[in-house]
Design a protein that fits this description.
Number of domains: 1
Strand order of the largest sheet: 3-4-5-6-7-8-9
Oligomer: single chain
Radius of gyration: 19 Å
Number of strands: 9
Helix content: 25-40%
Strand content: 5-15%
CATH class: Alpha Beta
CATH superfamily: NADP-dependent oxidoreductase domain
Distance between the termini: 32 Å
Number of helices: 11
Bound molecules: NADP nicotinamide-adenine-dinucleotide phosphate
Structural class: alpha/beta
Length: 320
Amino acid sequence: MKTRKLRDIAVSEVGMGCMAFSHGYGRIPSETYSIEAIRNAYAHGCTFFDTAEVYSPNLAGIGHNERIVGKALEDVRDKVVIATKLMLHGTHPGDVYPTIRSHLEGSLSRLRTDRVDLYYLHRMSGVPVEKVAESMGRLMEEGLIRGWGLSQVDVDVIDRAQRVVPLSAIQNIYSMVERDSEKKIIPYCMEHNIGFVPFSPIASGLLSGKITPQTQFEQNDDVRNWVPQLSRANLAGNQPIVALVKAFAEKKNATPAQISLAWMLHKYPNVVPIPGSKNKERIVENLDAAKVELTDEEFTELEKSLDGLKVYGHRGLGGF
Ligand SMILES: NC(=O)c1ccc[n+]([C@@H]2O[C@H](COP(=O)([O-])OP(=O)(O)OC[C@H]3O[C@@H](n4cnc5c(N)ncnc54)[C@H](OP(=O)(O)O)[C@@H]3O)[C@@H](O)[C@H]2O)c1
């Protein structure tokens, strides 16, 4: 697969979100299946894997997902880029470096590695972003991380951080139905050589075209019960968008999920989506979005049609 750069970190054009092996989309697969799925993605050309310390069943406990990712990638560690994230809620501004360092040491051990390639602050807390940037810069000098990033942040926070220690990537929600980051954030990232890593790029499944009003989400630990575009009423309202993506998929001999990813890959050179799935075949399908080339004319047609359609439901940067 072709590569893109998150500042100086080269990654496959499409990465893999590993969260659902531990949290967020209902029942989790066995560890054996999850490890096989990750290794299979690597064998299929994926070199960018996304996890976080908090990804554990029901968000109770720490590190379930990092342990799986660590085991799966141990043998190919030098050939892949591992991104993980930490939370700093409740940290005193005077304790930022030791606190981050202690979180990082936990992640390193669970990931079976001596460095994290891309270390994100998962959410802003009371800690000033400048303090986080300084600490991340120190960890970079110490060789414990290669680059750093922020998640679910607006452009003012990005700019304050960037002035202290240049960022490698911003990870925000972004898809055909969550386009807030197009206004200022992605342009800022392009101008400052920062990668942009969209999470929930398939809109939690909406853009796969497989979710119908009859689809039952799971009762336990399934964010689709709360994703606004998937509520009964909004799912009906969003059908013209799903129909548009399906029509393009048919024309391009691709799948709707692939079209939704190919659209953002065509639109921005610094975007690297991390679709999530707990299904081996769909993981490969999503990686193959990198093979779907939209022509400029096709992209413009798709973009124009999208611009004319109302999106029902909005999560935005302040959401969960
Ligand atoms: N920074 C943050 O705060 C944050 C927040 C959320 C997520 N993330 C990261 O972003 C990654 C991706 O986000 P996400 O998982 O929320 O959203 P997503 O990739 O937009 O969608 C995942 C959902 O779509 C389904 N799906 C995926 N590919 C499909 C396909 N080809 N056909 C049919 N259904 C498909 C999955 O079902 P199946 O599993 O059944 O295939 C799952 O229900 C996560 O794994 C995580 O690493 C980060």
